[in-house]
Specification:
The complex is a heterodimer of chains A (362) and B (321).
Chain A (H helix, E strand, L loop, with lengths): L1 H26 L2 E4 L2 E6 L12 E6 L8 E6 L9 E3 L1 E7 L16 E2 L2 E8 L8 E7 L8 E7 L3 E2 L6 E11 L2 E11 L17 E5 L3 E3 L10 E11 L3 E6 L9 E4 L4 E4 L5 E3 L7 E6 L19 E3 L9 E6 L3 E14 L10 E9 L3
Chain B lengths: L1 H7 L1 H13 L10 E6 L3 E5 L4 E10 L5 E8 L1 E4 L2 E7 L2 H6 L8 E3 L3 E4 L3 E10 L7 E11 L9 E16 L7 E8 L3 E2 L2 E11 L8 E7 L5 E7 L11 E10 L12 E10 L9 E10 L2 H27 L1
Parallel strand pairs in B: 2-11, 13-19
Antiparallel strand pairs in B: 1-3, 3-9, 4-8, 4-10, 5-6, 7-9, 10-11, 12-14, 14-17, 15-16, 15-18, 18-19
The chains are: A mainly beta (362), B alpha+beta (321).
Chain lengths: 362, 321
């Protein structure tokens, strides 16, 4: 009886100590979820047998002492599809990646510290394909660390099933364990083939810098006024510009005031000289672009007050600029309009519409 | 009395009124116009009753959309410039014998070109069954719609571009041409920058694309240059005259084969234009001109004269001594 009492006296406290001790030991294992994690793969196509590279960003919830391990575990039922060949990995800490978010925890703050070494092991009956990274030094809670894992003797691939797959990333050091399970998605084909054909057909590209030109104020009997815009051309095999005016719609091109009516004509077959006193007329000149383009003499800028004369309608179109070889880069010319009103000009608003025809040679 | 004064000062009063009226401040809605087109021409060989469909692609590289009216008309060359095209007026179109404009239909009469976007214009050519053999032409042509309001004095600029079509009906054509002129732009040149002008007339019933060479020889009949004629392959429409300009320029007075290129020169033009056995119909002509580097000649003469004067002066001085 005494021995039973003694046994109870020793046994019960011992049992209690053991129970409390085990209880204490259980709670000393600090398991938590990772604050943030992402996996950025260079390929997301299903059934790749090699060449997969991972960039992993992890933000532990806990602080870890030096000597920790990072594990990436793939689904248990997909053995040997993720770790195609077991062996060492090339592991590098990275301080940024293309998948970084500008704010929040999905932005790598620092490269995963330590002398990192990685292996890829294939799963078996009760294990899964796993990448294990060792050699981590101390990690700070809330800091997002980045690392890149690429194949070495071990080869990484992807599972053959299109769709979502669970991945578990765990950081552990002693009793401190942070982990998170999340899904990655594989697609049947992650490459887009972009195809285009450059046409053999010749082309020409023509630009007029401004569709309106202000000639300011014309004083009857006063000096001539000018206004200008640019024209620009690129062409695969030569180009030409021709121009014609509208004028009064019946006799000649030129600035026309319908309320008069009165026409400041673009008379003459070649040029209009606006220099003589009380002369009247309208015309255009162009600067010669660099690169071998030709402005016909009567339209070539350079003589003060002398402008090339225009005619009206399609039938009156006159060549103003051309080039018989290709213009790979834009060739620019400034078109200057000149007009002068004589003392007989009626007051009013004068306008002219000049149509510029641009084309490539046939 | 007042009326008399007003009448007397009529001219003085009238001038400011005119100035005032002509000085209306213009309001302009400015914008750029941009049009690109491909292909720049189309040559087709078709038979009576045949149908052909395709598309022309236009684009606009400006920052704003432009709207264009679509014209289909026969065309002619601009100022005898081969390879150019300008649509015919209504009156010309009514009398045009070789216009194929009525054969062509397009899906749109007005085309809006959005910025930085290709716009396709589909067309269909239906050749009538009763058409005669020969070459016909037409152009699908866009002209921008004038934009903006203009008050005051100024000019609007419109932009036009298109694709000319040369449609050959049948299989046999008469290809015939006449050389009207072959000359240089000047008779004497200080530097070698010579423009050769050639004028051809197409007498056949199809377009021709003449090709050839201009061979330049010096006074010793040594070849100093060989210039391709019509290197851009500009075609000449039937019943049309075409002016071709070919340039020969060289920096020094020695040809690439180190032959002196000074003095009287003779240029010989050899042109072929037939698509079948072109060598059986060669057009040829000659032109002469001079290359006189007068600045160099004067400089040499001045140096020689200075030398001679110096020598004579020296001799005179020696004699005096």
């Amino acid at each position: 009886m005494r021995s039973i009492k003694t046994l109870l006296k020793i046994g019960i406290p011992t049992l209690l100590i053991l129970v409390f001790a085990s209880f204490f030991m259980y709670f000393s294992s600090q398991a938590a979820s990772l604050t943030a994690v992402y996996v950025y793969m260079n390929r997301i196509q299903a059934n790749l047998s090699t060449g997969v590279v991972y960039i992993v960003a992890v933000a532990p919830n806990s602080s870890f002492a030096s000597g920790g391990t990072l594990k990436i575990e793939f689904p248990q039922t997909q053995d040997t599809t993720w770790c195609r060949t077991a062996g060492s990995m090339t592991v590098t800490g990275v301080s940024s990646s293309s998948a970084d978010q500008s704010s929040g925890n999905w932005d790598i703050d620092a490269a995963l510290p330590g002398t990192l070494a990685g292996t890829c092991s294939q799963g078996g009956a009760s294990t899964a394909d796993t990448i294990t990274i060792t050699g981590l030094t101390a990690l700070t809670a809330g800091t997002t660390y980045g690392l890149q894992i690429a194949g070495n003797t071990g080869i990484l691939g992807t599972n053959s099933t299109v769709g979502q797959h669970d991945l578990t990333i765990t950081i552990s050091q002693g009793a401190t364990i942070d982990s998170k399970t999340f899904k990655i998605s594989l697609v049947s084909n992650d490459s887009v083939v972009v195809s285009a054909t450059v046409s053999e057909s010749p082309s020409v590209n023509c630009v007029i810098g401004s569709n309106t030109v202000n000639l300011g104020t014309l004083y009857p009997g006063g000096a001539f006024a000018v206004g200008s815009h640019t024209i620009s051309t690129t062409a695969t095999s030569g180009y030409y510009w021709a121009a014609y005016g509208t004028g009064n719609g019946s006799t000649d091109a030129g600035l026309y005031y319908g309320g008069g009516p009165y026409l400041i004509p673009s008379s003459g077959s070649t040029t209009v000289d606006l220099n003589p006193a009380n002369s009247e007329g309208f015309g255009i000149v162009l600067t010669q672009p660099a690169g071998g383009s030709v402005v016909p003499a009567n339209f070539l800028a350079g003589s003060n007050g002398i402008f090339g004369s225009l005619d009206r309608q399609f039938s009156g179109a006159r060549m103003i600029l051309y080039k018989t070889s290709s213009a790979a880069s834009a060739e620019n010319s400034t078109v200057t309009y000149g007009a002068r009103a004589s003392t007989s000009a009626l007051p009013g608003a004068y306008t002219e519409t000049v149509t510029f025809i641009c084309g490539g040679y046939y | 009395m007042i009326l008399k004064i007003l009448k007397e000062y009529n001219r003085i009063l009238l001038l400011p009124v005119i100035i005032l009226c002509l000085s209306v401040i213009p309001t302009f809605a400015q914008g750029s116009l941009s049009i690109g087109v491909s292909p720049t021409f189309k040559t087709l060989k078709m038979q009576p009753g045949e149908t052909y469909s395709d598309e022309i692609v236009f684009w606009n590289l400006s920052q704003e959309a432009d709207t264009y009216d679509v014209y289909i008309r026969g065309f002619r060359q601009v100022e005898n410039q081969p390879g150019t095209a300008i649509i015919l007026t209504d009156e010309e179109e009514a009398e045009a014998l070789y216009s194929a404009s009525k054969w062509i239909s397009v899906e749109k009469k007005v085309l809006t070109l959005e910025p930085s976007k290709n716009t396709k214009l589909k067309y269909t050519i239906n050749v009538p069954t009763d058409v005669t053999n020969g070459e016909f032409n037409a152009q699908i042509f866009l002209i921008s719609q004038t934009k903006g309001e203009l008050e005051g004095t100024g000019a609007f600029a419109n932009l036009a571009a298109g694709t000319p079509f040369l449609i050959q009906i049948g299989d046999e054509f008469v290809e015939n041409a006449e050389l009207l002129r072959f000359t240089t732009d000047k008779k004497t040149y200080e530097r070698i920058n010579v423009d050769f002008f050639t004028q051809l007339k197409n007498l056949g019933d199809t377009h021709i694309t003449p090709a050839g060479e201009i061979v330049v020889e010096n006074i010793f009949k040594q070849e100093v240059a060989r210039i391709p004629f019509n290197r851009n392959k500009q075609s000449l429409l039937r019943d049309n005259i075409g002016n071709y300009t070919d340039n020969w320029s060289q920096s020094g007075y020695l040809s690439p084969s180190k032959i002196l290129t000074v003095g009287p020169m003779k240029a010989k033009l050899l042109v072929t234009y037939r698509s079948f056995q072109p060598g059986f119909a060669v057009l040829s002509s000659e032109a002469t001109f001079w290359i006189i580097p007068w600045k160099i000649i004067i400089a040499i003469l001045v140096i020689l004269l200075t030398g001679i004067i110096a020598v004579i002066s020296k001799k005179k001085l020696q004699r005096k001594k």
